[in-house]
Amino acid sequence: SWRLTSRPTLKMTPSASLLLLLLLGLCRALPLQEEGGKEEKAPDTVDITTRILRSNNGSNEILLEGDLLAPRTRNAMMCWTQNCFWKKNSSGLVTVPFTVSREFTSSEKQLIVNAMQGFHSKTCIRFVPRKNETDYIMGGRQVLSLSRQGCLYYGIIQHEVNHALGFQHEQTRSDRDDYVTINWDNIDPQMAYNFYKQSTNNLNTPYDYTSIMHYGRTAFSINGKDSITPIPNPNVQIGQRQGLSSWDIIRINKLYGC
């Protein structure tokens, strides 16, 4: 997915906007089932987390939870003013201006736009081409960077966009210990910080194993064994990358008052 490479959503101004940047080898920032269904999908054998971590491997930047260049304070982030969020207009829509790097081909740009438009039918979020906004996804600005090698998939793009909207990884939410076990012995001690719980605003919604924001079960594993095990049923699937889950959609709508 993409990562935030500039300011995180913590300090977005009311006129904020998004930039989609091509970086060779990086997916960063930090789904509703797919709309249309014609976009290229990630192979079923590889979950979204694995693709992100593979693409970010070797980055010389400090990444939080594998794909975030931002403070680890969000599930939705804890914020008590509207200045943290994208602004709603008089029509009740939350417009997010964006710019796509010229480095992407026309077909790659279309895939990115299709993934962003997947938010439109189920939420009040509207991604619109930037005109003269001073803040945007890459402007004054928030940067989402996508690698051609591993990140240009519908669900991965949506995962990173959802970070830009203010959402953290699911398994770091404050109540996660009731739903998953973190297997610390299977995790590189230098990577353990990626699994620390956060003080999150869970929006009165249940823990969601199906969230596009959930790590796969072997994220940051040093031995191929589970770094995350669902409880009480260890066989529950986690780490899907097809698109926003129904709870992902509900949370977006709750956070932005759709």
Main sheet: strands, sense, barrel: 5 strands, mixed
In round numbers, the mean pLDDT is 74
Instruction: Characterize the overall form.
Output: globular
Identify the strand order in the major beta sheet.
Answer: 1-5-2-3-4
- The H-and-E topology, N to C, reads as EEHEHEEHEEH
Keywords: Cytoplasmic vesicle, Disulfide bond, Glycoprotein, Hydrolase, Metal-binding, Metalloprotease, Protease, Signal, Zinc, Zymogen
GO cellular component, one term: zymogen granule
Pfam family, one: Astacin
Organism: Sander lucioperca
Describe this structure as you would to a colleague.
This protein is α/β, with parallel strands linked by helices and 258 residues long. Helix content is 16%, strand content 12%. Strands 1-5-2-3-4 form a 5-stranded mixed beta sheet, with helices on one face. The longest helix has 12 residues, at 106-117. The two termini are 25 Å apart. This is Metalloendopeptidase. Residues 75-258 form the Peptidase M12A domain. Its cofactor is Zn(2+).
